[in-house]
Amino acid sequence: MIPALAILLAVSATAAQPVAKVQLPCESHSQDLSPTGTQLAVTCKDNSVYLVEVSDGAGRKVLTSDHPPNTHVYSQDGRWLAAGFSDGTVEVISAHDSTASRQWKAGPHRIDTLYFFPDGKRLFVGPVDSPGTVWELSETPALLATLPADFGGISVCAVSPDGKLMVAAGDDTVLRWYATATWQKTREYRDFLLETFALTFTPDGKSVLAGGADSRISVFDAASGKQVSQLPPETGSSIFYIGLLGDQNRALAVYFDNAGGKPPQALVWDLITAKSVPVTGDAPPTCGAIVKGKLWTCSSDGKMLTISQHE
Amino acid sequence: MTFTRRELLERCAAFGAITLASSIPLSALASAWDEAEKKRTPTPFCELGPFYKRKAPNTSMLRAPGDAGMPLALSGKVYDVRGQIVPEAKIEIWQTDNDGHYDIEGYRYRTLLEPGAEGSYAIESVMPGHYPTRVCQHVHYLVTAPGHKPLITQLYFATDPVFDGDPDKNYTRDPLITSSELVRPVVIKGDPKQITAAVNFDLVLERL
Fold first, then answer.
1. Do the Cβ atoms of B150 and A171 come within 8 Å?
2. What pLDDT does residue B2 have?
C-alpha cells in the first residue's frame, strides 16, 4: 500500500510560518489535516481515530480501536470523513456534528482507496484486487458505477472540478477516462509500463497530472486524453502524491524511495519551465495538506501538534 | 434429474452420442474422466505490489553470470479448478535481486512466460532479497488466460527465517500472506559447489 502523504512529507522548516498549536487527544504519530485546514483526523497509537478542531482542540472519537480503518479521507469541503475497512465496509461520518453516519458493505475485499467527488455527494471506493465502485451518498448509499481494470483494482482516481469527468488508474497500468453522467468509458491511455499512484486535475479542469512508479509527472489534456508533456524523472523513486499549489503552474510531488531505504522527498515543479525546487527539512512532518493553494504541514512530539504554512 | 458420470456416459453411448473403441470399457473412461478432473483449489490471491511492469521479455533465465545470491529454480504448471491444464495461460513473474531491489528502469528479474499446451513453466533465478518494507522474501506472479479470472499472487519460501521453521503456524507474521499455501517448500539440489534451491509452485485459475 502507498504510504499516506500525512506521514511522509518532508518539507522545509525554515520557510514555514506557524498557524496553530493543537493538544492531541492521545499519543499520535499520524494525522490528516482537512482540506480547509480547520480540523485534524488524529490516528491514535491504538488505531482509534479522533476528529479534533484546530481552533480550540475540541475532539471526539469517531472510529474505535476494535474496528480500525484501513484508509480514510476527507471530502474536499472538509464536511465528511470516509473510512474504508479491511472487511470491505465503508463508513461516511459527518466531520462537524453528530449526524448519523452511513455505513455499508461495498464488497468483500479490503478497501484501499477512497475519493470524494468535488460536490461531496459521491464517493469512489477502491477495493484491493477488485473493480472500483462509485456510490451516491444518499441516506442509503446507492451503487452508481463499477469500473474494472484488465486485472487487479483501481489504485487512484481524480474527478474534474465540474464533476463531469473521472480519470482512473488501474493496477494494469492503464488510465481510463469516464463521463460521469453516463459512466461510459470515453478514453484510455495504455502507454504506461508502470503503475500510476497519483492523479489530479488542474483547477481549471483542462489538464490531468499523473505520476507513479515511472518517477515523473505526465501532463495530459483532460478532454482528449492525449499526453502533452512529461517532466524529468527522479530516478529511483515513485510519485505517490501530486497537488497543485497557488496558481495552476506549480505542482507539489511527493516521492518514495523505490529501494525503501531513504525517507521520502518532496519537489515543487514549475510546469511551464519543467524545473523543480527540492523541499527539504529537518524531520518528516506528521501530516500535510494543500490549503487554499498553500502547503500546510504538521509536526508533533506525539502529544502536541504544530501546524505551519509554507510560502 | 442428475446423473453420475458413469450413468451419463452410458446414456451417451446408448444414444450414439459417443462411440467407444471396443478396447475401452465405459468404466475405464469414467475413471479417466474423474482422474482428469480432480478438483483443485484456486491459488490464493496476494496483492500486486507497486512494482509491476508491463512488457517483460520472454525468458526462462533470469539469472546472469556473476549475479549474487543462491540460484533458484522455480517451476510448476497452470491448471484450472477442474484440474485441467490451461494451455493459453501467460505467466508474468517479477522479484527483487539478491539485495532486495526491484529493477524499475529495466527488466532484470522479470519475465513473461507462455507455458503452451503442456502448461508447464520453469525459470532460473536467484533467491530474492528482503525488500526493506516487507517482512518476507517473495516472488510476484500475474497469471492470465482467456476465460479465466486473472490471478495475482506471491510465492514465499518455507526456509524464510521469519517462519521459524513452521510456516503453517507463523505465516501470518507477514500480514500480506493470505494463506500458508503460498509458502512453498524449498528443495536443495546439486553438488556442494553449486547448489540450487528448487521450488515447485502450481497455479490454479478460476473460470470466469
1. no
2. 44
